[in-house]
Amino acid sequence: MSSVALALDFGGTKVEAALVSADGVVIPGTRFRRPSGGSSDSATLQRAVLDVVREAHAALAPEHELLGVGIGSAGPITLAEGLVSPLNVPAWRDFALRDLVQRELPDVPVTLQMDGICITLAEHWVGAAQGYDNVMGMIVSTGVGGGLVLGGRTVAGPTGNAGHIGHIEAGGFDDACPCGGRGCLEAVASGPRTVAWARTQGFTGSTGEELAAAHRAGDPVAIAAIERSGRAIGQVVASATSLVDLEIVAIGGGFSHSSPRLFEAAREAVAERREFGFVTKVKIVPSGLSHDGPLIGAGALVHRADRVGG
Amino acid sequence: MSSVALALDFGGTKVEAALVSADGVVIPGTRFRRPSGGSSDSATLQRAVLDVVREAHAALAPEHELLGVGIGSAGPITLAEGLVSPLNVPAWRDFALRDLVQRELPDVPVTLQMDGICITLAEHWVGAAQGYDNVMGMIVSTGVGGGLVLGGRTVAGPTGNAGHIGHIEAGGFDDACPCGGRGCLEAVASGPRTVAWARTQGFTGSTGEELAAAHRAGDPVAIAAIERSGRAIGQVVASATSLVDLEIVAIGGGFSHSSPRLFEAAREAVAERREFGFVTKVKIVPSGLSHDGPLIGAGALVHRADRVGG
């Protein structure tokens, strides 16, 4: 018999489930997907979740022993009760996602955490942060999210929402954020916000891919836009390291691939904190995960349960 | 017999030692002090430390059982080797403070942590954060420092420098910081920096006490200065809560007493993060510690060793 986890990843645009092996691999042929998203009602979302859970469960082979279900969800969440309120999914506010899945599979334990925590656990397990016990995982995409592993264990916090790196402010920026704050990293450095800033400077494209292409072509506005966002990322990494003494930050997500310059600008901003070796020591590296990362991380809630902290 | 800790607090202007009881009280008549500070050479600083340690040790009564020594030091520190490099004490860079004390008292365990961590442990033990397990302690004085208790245990980080809340940036501020960064909380909201900003607006005093007096008298520049610093404190508390899901922040230090308006402005800034209940839930309260707080916290490293994390 080989031990497997059923992993579920619920995000703002899609929900996916798959079987994840004990060595951190999505088992081929077991991955299923449905759209989720802003315009769906709760019944449609629930059906999408149950569809992919049933499909992944039906993919169990005779040699598989199902240890449990791990769920990563877009936040905010309420950890103790297993409720989710994804910012971009208005139909779900305090929705009992964990109980929905538990009723479907009553015989195995079901664990739910914020998706950013799952991704960080995956980086720590099989990604770019292997060998480090003080890690921040980050996703820079349509939003900016993340999670923490401190002292070798995930930090969820009393409500389960620790790791909201997109809502740490960056000095000198005051862009309005949907959370109600100003100067939050997500309001500066997400793909859409970076494009929006570039457009104020004359850029005529409308997507992160177009901005990346313009950057490759040497367009000075695209270069300035990516440097601005990279710099904000670095400032916030420096702030987070001041607070929790990180060793390494692994950054993934669609917009993180726009240019290596994004990473260089982030590292330059960290290096300015020259008086504090404990800050400048932090490494900023690209994610070591494939596009399976979120599912591997949800599976890690089961396979690496000893690394899941309070 | 009653169990006592020998507590040592090493700061930028003074070094103190005292005996601390198992219920978190500085035993009367056991507290001793010497100046430290920027102009002293290393030999003078070492003598000052040994003087107060010997004096406190000589104050042990026949009924006292000495469990160990707890040291809180201004940071940065290097936890594993027990080295200190206090920013305002240039004579000590990677100075082996823990070993100095261990040689003096070879028969008991000696523990060293950053002073902000000690203060937070004291707030958690006998101060304003009793009953909460996700706490930030803060000192707002000539500098801004702090520490974290997460999940009921202190977080030191791999180098021992977690809790440097003064070097989280505040959105919209870009004041130059001695650490090399810009917009760090310490560069905005410390007592001296608040006074310096007020002077750019026409304030003619030169101390935090004068600024507090002007505020009480209704001076609009003093009011604006204290609101500006309180707002920056609140912004950084919101950022820190986004990252580690704090329940309560206890703020002490000389400048924190300048006006209740400082706390109100901080709370107003947190409340603006209206979409995130896990952020707006954080309480901001005055420290519950007397001026014995740093020593009680150093003593807590011994008496509350089960609460001291990695």
Automatic annotation (TrEMBL), chains A, B:
SUPFAM superfamilies assigned: Actin-like ATPase domain
Domain of life, source organism: Bacteria
EC number: 2.7.1.2
Cross-referenced InterPro entries: ATPase_NBD, ROK, ROK_cs
GO molecular function annotation: glucokinase activity
Protein family: Belongs to the ROK (NagC/XylR) family.
PANTHER family: N-ACETYLMANNOSAMINE KINASE, ROK (REPRESSOR, ORF, KINASE) FAMILY
Protein name, entry field: Glucokinase
Organism: Schumannella luteola
